[in-house]
Amino acid sequence: MNNTGCYVTSSGLTHVGCVRACNEDAYLEMPDSGLWCVADGMGGHDSGDVASQSIIQALAQLGAEYQGYELTEQVTDVLQTVNTYLLNHARSIGGDAVVGSTVVVLVLEGENYHCYWTGDSRCYLWRDNFLKCITRDHTLVSEAVAEGRLTQVQADKHPKGHVLTRAIGAYEDVTVEVETGIIFEGDTFLLCTDGLTRIFNDQMIAERLLYSPPDQVNASLIDEALSLGASDNITSIMLTIE
Predict the structure, then answer these.
(1) Other beta carbons within 10 Å of 7
(2) pLDDT (tens digit per residue) in 14-39
(3) Which residues lie below 8 Å from residue 207, measured CB to CB, with a gap of 6+?
(4) What is the per-residue burial (b if ≥16 Cβ within 10 Å, else e) of 192-203?
(5) In angstroms, what CA-CA distances link 111 with 69, 86, 146?
(6) Which of 11, 53, 54, 171 lies at a 20 to 30 A Cα distance from 42?
(7) What are the CA-CA distances from residue 219 to residues 28, 125, 207, 214, 238 (Å)?
(8) CA nearest to 79, candidates 44, 98, 52, 97
(9) Structural domain spans, the chain
(10) Residue 159, Cβ neighbours under 10 Å: how many?
(11) Do 176 and 76 touch, CB atoms closer than 8 A?
């Protein structure tokens, strides 16, 4: 039982995938503190694994010291601090180096959940056999859809579908978006990198959750993605309020 007064079971998994030599994803599970995180180092950039691990380490230290309301008050500040650190690290490398990472953080506090994110790593909520994506991708294509310049059908096939507009360590000024809601018994949250969502759309994830226990779904999603030749690193955390 954590600080919410509920029992929470969680399962985190990561895999390098079928193509890349290095896993630039990272994840954090701290159920006693009510803290979970997934980070995706920016593929093709310098030191993506350094970026994602820097986020995880900073949040792990935060979760070791705080929980509940005090924790929620500091997540954004910690991510801003990591952003500054990564920018300085990139400058020390020189040239046009970018040391960046997407991130999605979930904090359970009392009867509430708090989701923080930057980039296109996602957080889903499965409740009453309905899957809702809590996050909104910070990409050029997603913003074009929100502004009515592209349809979702066009966006799904767009060649620049994963060009980010926000990431920790990639921009001097980064805005961390936050979404808060109430938790209920039976809620299941899925945090994942785009290595998973490039293969499985929302409907496909929902179909699997409808017929299998959440912990089994997490493992089966990774296995199925690998069987399909996953070209990116894949990371996911599934947690259920019991």
Answers:
(1) 12
(2) 999 999 889 999 999 999 999 999 99
(3) none
(4) bbbbbbbbbeee
(5) 11, 34, 30
(6) 11
(7) 17, 18, 15, 9, 9
(8) 52
(9) 8-241
(10) 7
(11) yes
Token digits for 203? 């409907």
pLDDT in tens, 46-73: 688 999 999 999 999 999 999 999 999 9
β pairing state of 177-182 and 112-118: antiparallel
User: The tokens 């790593």 sit on which residue?
Assistant: 121
Amino acid identity, position 1: M
Ordered alpha helix ranges (H), the chain: 48-65, 68-72, 75-93, 140-146, 152-156, 194-197, 202-211, 214-227
Residues 90-137: tens digit of each pLDDT: 999 887 888 999 999 999 999 999 999 999 999 999 999 999 999 999
User: Which CATH number does 8-241 carry?
Assistant: 3.60.40.10
Task: Quote the Cα angle for 133-152-236, to 5°.
Answer: 35
* Rounded Cα distance, 202 and 96, in Å: 36
The residue written with tokens 């994942």 in the block is: 192
